[in-house]
Amino acid sequence: MRTKIVIANWKMKLGVFESIQLVKKLKLAFLKKLWQEQIIICPDFLSLPSSRQALLRSKLKLGAQNCFWQENGSYTGEVSVKNLSSLGVEYVILGHSERRRYFKETSLQVASKARLALLNNITPIICLGESRSEYKNNKTLFILKKQLKASLDGIKLTAKQRLVIAYEPVWAIGSGESLEANKIANILKFLQEELKKITSFKKAISRISFIYGGSVNPDNAKVMANFKDIQGLLVGSESLQVKSFTKICQEFLS
Ligand code: PGA
Prior knowledge:
By secondary structure, the chain is α/β, with parallel strands linked by helices. Helix content is 41%, strand content 15%. Helix 5 packs across helix 7 (140-151).
């Protein structure tokens, strides 16, 4: 059964101490909220262990912002998804446009990481999105279809595995410009239909969540809550503000 989710992507914006403080504040803000287990907090790698500690006795979930495509070996500086799993990480953001842009990550690499994450009981949050010029030239659906197919290469979900597909227009990230809710819903529906064309995903469609990210704020979250095809939100900057993030979750999940 698919439930709505809200994911907080803290990027590289907080120190370890600040992350712990924010986790504690959010834990308090969401205390007794029935939908708190639908919220996933993604701090940076170094803050994961202390965030886990701070999250004790709370149902908020923990996610990472990346992982490597091998479990272990001579890969200086990389982070193993197996280690993330042993820390209690349940989700991992993969193929965020900042990683595709600054680290030249390809969709096929994203697929390798996602396959390994699934093997380690971690749900991949696979990010897709078109650039501003692709958007302006009406290439959005073409680009998304291509990224979707390649980012899912070789993936087959078992009965217990879940997947999150996050549509994040690159031009909407951090720009304050979000796409209109009805357009987002249509695009997420399109992605859903595309996956249904693949037999193995068709059977698993109720375990795949289709979500939106890019300048999400309390106002647009309220509007998006009315669209059944928008099954979740990926929130960047506004997830660092307790008041804003609480409002977003309240509007979208309650
Ligand atoms: P934003 O970031 O909410 O600040 O636009 C979203 C993201 O990068 O996932």
